[in-house]
Design a protein that fits this description.
Layout lengths: L10 E2 L8 E2 L40 H16 L3 H13 L7 H13 L3 H13 L7 H12 L4 H13 L7 H13 L3 H13 L7 H13 L3 H13 L7 H13 L3 H13 L7 H12 L4 H13 L7 H12 L4 H13 L7 H13 L3 H13 L7 H13 L3 H47 L2
Length: 454
């Protein structure tokens, strides 16, 4: 599945085949791994060269200025300027003013890093971390990042926290991850503040603490983190560590949505779709789902498909529903995969096709989708596109029931009753057959005796 998106839109199953009403729980935005990195913002002023830690030269600078900067840095680097050597590495890495070359970037970063340039040590560690210009090597990445982090380099501290969290290059240690995130957060690193909130929210490696999670999300939100806005909204939506409040949730989702967060946009669509704190409005739900879907949010794509399928505030259109379900399904969305399977099963938006129905239901079943498991069981029970087989049906129903499918429980009861009735009928049939034979033999003997003595 994609990167922990907004909460899953409510899927009210209206297809008349193993129909279920389900509501999946919200999902929070997970740890972020973004970093600003180091590049150049200020170009040469007089004879000075000023490498900085912001964006490379700014978007409004012409390519010629990059080329001029490259020539200046090259001259200075040749005279032993470590700062210029690091700046050359940045230009080579970004492909600004010179053809992009990670090999050359590595060479210049190494020269500068060995002279103790803080930025270069981080940049070198980042190349090893990303495997650009060198084979990916988490241990070497850690070595260089530690050099920078020990000198209070905030982005290096953040990256080390990530490595401890994931266990790349070092044994996984969530507590050490927290320690390094805290170092970076204390220096104002927004992503570190957000990640600390996620750790407290999830209780990964530390005791779960909703109050601490909220505090850190608020810090990150104050510094502009759209994901933090979304998670705060989700905490109000779910009532995690705070009284459930749909209106405040909507306020925070809107803040995140205004910053372009697709998860927040999708969540607003869900609120309008479900009537959470706002009147139900299919058209507004569609508007917000489309904003998120245009950014590739698979949950929003599924939501658009649902609206078209159900005709909620818009004209019902099975073909468009199928198109949007396919977009989400091709990115691994199990509910969309199951929905496509059921549409093929019922001939909605496409001709009935039991083979395709089974293929899509199996994809969803591979992700332990309980409704898909139950639907496959029903196909075996009814012999739709497969040889009728109650035993296989029972096996699929059992798997679905273990995942909480009420439909599967009901179907299992139906099968048990059916088998019990069949057993009773066989018993009755056997008894009738037994007594019929005995009565036949009795009358046969009776008539033989009469015939013999008359």
């Amino acid at each position: 599945m994609p990167n922990r998106p907004a909460f899953i839109p409510d899927r009210v199953q209206t297809i008349n085949f193993s129909a279920v009403n389900e509501k999946s729980p919200p999902v929070y935005s997970d740890l972020t791994n973004e970093d600003d990195g180091f590049s150049l913002n200020d170009i040469i002023e007089g004879n000075s060269i000023t490498p900085t830690r912001t964006r490379l030269l700014g978007n409004n600078r012409a390519e010629q200025q990059y080329a001029d900067a490259f020539e200046w840095f090259l001259k200075a680097a040749g005279q032993g300027s470590a700062a210029a050597q690091n700046s050359l590495g940045v230009l080579y890495r970004e492909g600004k003013g010179v053809a992009q070359s990670y090999d050359c970037a590595l060479e210049w970063f190494l020269k500068a890093a060995e002279q103790g340039v803080l930025d270069a040590q981080f940049n070198l560690g980042k190349l090893y971390l990303d495997g650009k210009g060198v084979p990916q090597d988490y241990q070497k990445a850690m070595e260089w990042l530690l050099k920078a982090a020990e000198r209070e380099e905030v982005n290096a501290q953040f990256k080390i926290g990530e490595l401890y969290f994931s266990g790349k290059g070092v044994p996984q240690d969530r507590q050490k991850a927290m320690e390094w995130f805290l170092k970076a957060a204390d220096q104002g690193n927004t992503n570190a503040q957000f990640n600390i909130g996620v750790l407290y929210l999830s209780g990964k490696g530390i005791p779960q603490d909703y109050q601490q999670a909220m505090e850190w999300f608020l810090k990150a939100a104050d510094r502009g983190s759209a994901s933090a806005h979304f998670n705060i909204g989700n905490m109000y939506y779910k009532g995690d560590g705070t009284p459930q409040d749909y209106q405040r949730a909507m306020e925070w989702f809107l803040k995140g949505a205004e910053k372009g967060d697709s998860n927040a946009q999708c969540s607003i669509g869900c609120f309008y779709n479900n009537g959470n704190g706002v009147p139900r409005d299919g058209q507004k739900a569609m508007e917000w789902f489309l904003k998120a879907a245009d950014q590739g949010n698979v949950y929003a794509q599924f939501g658009v498909g649902n609206l078209y399928y159900r005709g909620n505030g818009i004209p019902q259109d099975y073909q468009k529903a199928m198109e949007w379900y396919l977009k989400a399904a091709n990115h691994g969305h199990s509910h969309a995969q199951r929905s496509i399977g059921l549409m093929y099963l019922n001939g909605e938006g496409a001709p009935k096709d039991y083979e395709k129905a089974m293929q899509w239901l199996l994809k969803a079943a591979d992700q332990e989708d309980s409704a898909a498991l139950a639907s496959i069981g029903e196909m075996y029970q009814r012999g739709l596109g497969v040889v009728q087989d109650n035993q296989k049906a029972k096996e699929w129903y059992l798997m679905a029931a273990e995942k909480g499918s009420d439909v599967a429980h009901r179907k299992l009861n139906e099968l048990s009753y059916s088998w019990a009735m069949m057993g009773s009928l066989k018993h009755v049939s056997g008894s009738i057959q037994f007594w019929s034979i005995h009565f036949f033999l009795f009358f046969l003997v009776y008539y033989l005796i009469i015939w013999i003595f008359t």
